[in-house]
Amino acid sequence: GENVEQHPSTLSVQEGDSAVIKCTYSDSASNYFPWYKQELGKRPQLIIDIRSNVGEKKDQRIAVTLNKTAKHFSLHITETQPEDSAVYFCAASKTGGGNKLTFGTGTQLKVEL
Amino acid sequence: EAGVAQSPRYKIIEKRQSVAFWCNPISGHATLYWYQQILGQGPKLLIQFQNNGVVDDSQLPKDRFSAERLKGVDSTLKIQPAKLEDSAVYLCASSLIIGPGEQGRNTIYFGEGSWLTVV
Description:
The structure holds two protein chains of two kinds.
Chain A: E1 4-7, E2 10-14, E3 19-25, E4 32-38, E5 45-51, E6 56-59, E7 62-67, E8 72-77, E9 86-92, E10 102-103, E11 107-112
Parallel strand pairs in A: 2-11
Antiparallel strand pairs in A: 1-3, 3-8, 4-5, 4-9, 6-7, 7-8, 9-10, 9-11
Chain B: E1 5-7, E2 10-13, E3 19-24, E4 31-37, E5 44-50, E6 53-56, E7 65-68, E8 75-79, E9 88-95, E10 109-110, E11 114-118
Parallel strand pairs in B: 2-11
Antiparallel strand pairs in B: 1-3, 3-8, 4-5, 4-9, 5-6, 7-8, 9-10, 9-11
């Protein structure tokens, strides 16, 4: 089955700096890659997603890039703010896989003042 | 738009006892999921329903876990008997459709979760 690895497990940045979280996946048939943000004690919330027919997608301060050849995708957050502090999860799924999401192990992002 | 509703939010039980969690998905969402999230880990799919049929239950420990979605709307996840390692957050989620489609139609929305502590 699919295996998703995520790095780093913790990330500390200064407010205003950029943060990058990287994920790799094992199943070359995976074609949908969402990113979820989970604040302490809260539900995971979708912040951005990308499909395999696109190499990059942006939404304000958040962007995701996908390299299908290398089977890795990354989340980029620019101009970080304290409210960006949370755990971020990457995930992957594929057509015919029943929409089943395989999640990474999460990255604890801390934005320091 | 109302989100995915779950209850109870918190439950503490002793090992070998039973527990049941309830989920009401977003209205009109055909696909319902139960995920288990152990502290410090990413969510892991336990079972997936399409309407009232099971699509995937390959990671459900069937000797102790069961789930049903009898009328294709609400769902119940039961654990009997519970073990210490079942301590986790049980997340219910739903999506409008299964598989590819128009942008956003297969987006998975999560509930707040049911926190289970087995002592």
